[in-house]
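To whoever is on call:

I kicked off a structure prediction for a single chain this morning and the downstream step that reads the tokens threw a length-mismatch warning. I double-checked the sequence; it's 218 residues and nothing unusual in it as far as I can see. Pasting both halves so you can look.
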Amino acid sequence: MKKRILETHQSIVSLGQLLLKFARTNRATYHEDGITPESDTDHTIMLAVIACACAEKFAPSLNRGKIAELALVHDLVEVYAKDTPTLRPLDKKGAHEKKLREEKAFKKIEGQFEIVFPWITQTIHEYESLASPEARFIKAIDKIMPKITSILNNGATEKKAGFSKSDELEKMYANQQKQIAEWVSDWPEIVDIYEALAHEALTPFKKPSGKKRIKIIL
């Protein structure tokens, strides 16, 4: 067997193992039942399909193939770094520790695959650096994904994180919407979609409107 083929063969097996671990890496979010954790592969497929569909509708000038590529690897470092819950903004120490974990994980993936499959680390770097409009687009759509799962499981993730009222969540969502608006300034419809989904995701945490009914005991 030629050396080049042997190296590729071995790297393919290692990459397959990495991706199986990726499928077993759970996020802080949940499926519709509010119990089953969402895996990184669940999230990745949802992001890739929804981002490409939204790009075709609202940003047809973007390269949908590139969007799909970015989506596929955008969280791959979590195989080693694990998912960091960011529902509540991280403090300076937490943000620094997350950055260090992800940099270390990236270096590990780079050491494994840079020579044989440089596309992997190059695409991760493009996403992290927001070096292209496609990277900024996928970054924005990525922030929409937790709102979808939240709507489907009636706010299970937020409730388990200790949220009981809408006020704190509303503030956080408003700040996130401003950030998204910077990433997709050319496609304001994406910001509108985020706002609509965030509003719906807040429903379980809002007090019912109208006057309370008085129960009369005879």
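Update from on-call: the warning came from a stale cache, not from the record. Cleared it. Sanity check on the structure: Residues 56 and 64 are 7 Å apart (CA to CA).
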